[in-house]
């Protein structure tokens, strides 16, 4: 279920539920969510990262936390930040509405290698690439960091007023956010949470999907607890069928003689006419001789 502005809830559609099942890792479903039994036949779950972080006291009443967060979710400000390779996307939400958002992309990944230029330079310090492409990627990487800093600094007021900040960044980018002379965030800030499920390439649509997933309360209905706690089986996507040249086949009801006649080449008759024309031309030439 998804909180609404009037304090109630609306159910997520079946397609959204199926998408969630596909995206969840098959290892530990119960470790990602708190499961609450409302009645003997009604069970709901909320992501743990929405309720508390490692910096908070583990002895806090989870039920009370859930009640406070869910009841005031429509008036809270959440920040979602996604960064992967050269793709960056971020947005500020007040309730379910987008306040501000921004996306941009820089070319920093080496072609057919899948790694950013800085990682390759760190692994080969004695033999760094000196090509024009490598220089361009290094420059773009610096521009990407500067663009992120300028954007988040311009959102300083929104970030200060945010109740929760969800960040998904690679390991080699944590220094940009949490260290240095002027870090963007304090690593001990209790509002900062990681995203507890798989995310795709950072885009505005993906930021909206992540927010909707975190902003939702899943109602399991009358399912038994064993079924709720059982991790879903990983779903393998089928490869698209290869396009093959279509070959027309004759019906099996045809006789052998009909098949032979159907497979006979038509140019045979044309060749016979061509041979007769050649013979007639030769005869005419012979008659013209005295």
Automatic annotation (TrEMBL):
Q: Which PANTHER family match?
A: ANKYRIN REPEAT AND ZINC FINGER DOMAIN-CONTAINING PROTEIN 1, TRNA ENDONUCLEASE ANKZF1
Where in this protein does the record put region Disordered?
Answer: 1-23, 230-290
* Compositional bias per record (Basic residues), positions renumbered to this chain: 279-290
Q: Which GO terms describe its biological process?
A: ERAD pathway
Keyword Cytoplasm belongs to the record:
yes
The answer to whether keyword Cell wall biogenesis/degradation applies is: no
Q: Which family does it belong to?
A: Belongs to the ANKZF1/VMS1 family.
What's an example GO cellular component term for this entry?
cytoplasm
Q: Catalytic center at which residues?
A: 117
Q: Domain named VLRF1: which ranges?
A: 74-217
What is this protein called in UniProt? VLRF1 domain-containing protein
Q: Which PROSITE patterns match?
A: VLRF1
- Reproduce the free-text note on domains from the UniProt record: The VLRF1 domain mediates binding to the 60S ribosomal subunit.
């Amino acid at each position: 279920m998804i909180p609404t502005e009037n304090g109630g809830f609306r159910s997520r559609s079946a397609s959204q539920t199926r998408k969630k099942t596909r995206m969840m890792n098959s290892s530990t479903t119960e470790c990602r969510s708190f499961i609450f039994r409302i009645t003997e036949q009604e069970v709901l779950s909320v992501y743990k990262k929405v309720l508390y972080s490692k910096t908070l006291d583990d002895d806090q009443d989870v039920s009370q936390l859930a009640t406070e967060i869910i009841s005031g979710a429509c008036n809270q400000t959440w920040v979602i930040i996604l960064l992967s390779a050269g793709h960056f996307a971020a947005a500020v939400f007040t309730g379910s509405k987008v306040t501000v958002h921004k996306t941009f992309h820089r070319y920093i990944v080496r072609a057919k290698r899948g790694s950013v230029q800085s990682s390759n330079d760190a692994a080969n310090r004695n033999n760094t690439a000196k090509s024009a492409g490598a220089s361009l990627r290094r420059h773009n990487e610096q521009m990407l960091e500067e663009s992120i800093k300028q954007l988040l600094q311009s959102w300083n007021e929104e970030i200060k007023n945010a109740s929760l900040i969800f960040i998904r960044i690679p390991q080699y980018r944590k220094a940009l956010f949490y260290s240095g002379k002027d870090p963007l965030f304090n690593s001990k800030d209790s509002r900062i949470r990681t995203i507890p499920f798989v995310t795709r390439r950072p885009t505005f649509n993906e930021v909206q999907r992540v927010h909707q997933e975190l902003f939702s309360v899943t109602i399991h209905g009358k399912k038994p607890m064993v079924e709720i706690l059982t991790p879903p089986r990983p779903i393998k996507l089928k490869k698209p069928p290869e396009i093959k040249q279509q070959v027309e086949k004759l019906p099996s009801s045809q006789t052998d003689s009909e098949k032979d006649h159907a497979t006979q080449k038509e140019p045979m008759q044309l060749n016979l006419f061509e041979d007769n024309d050649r013979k007639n031309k030769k005869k005419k030439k012979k008659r013209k001789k005295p």
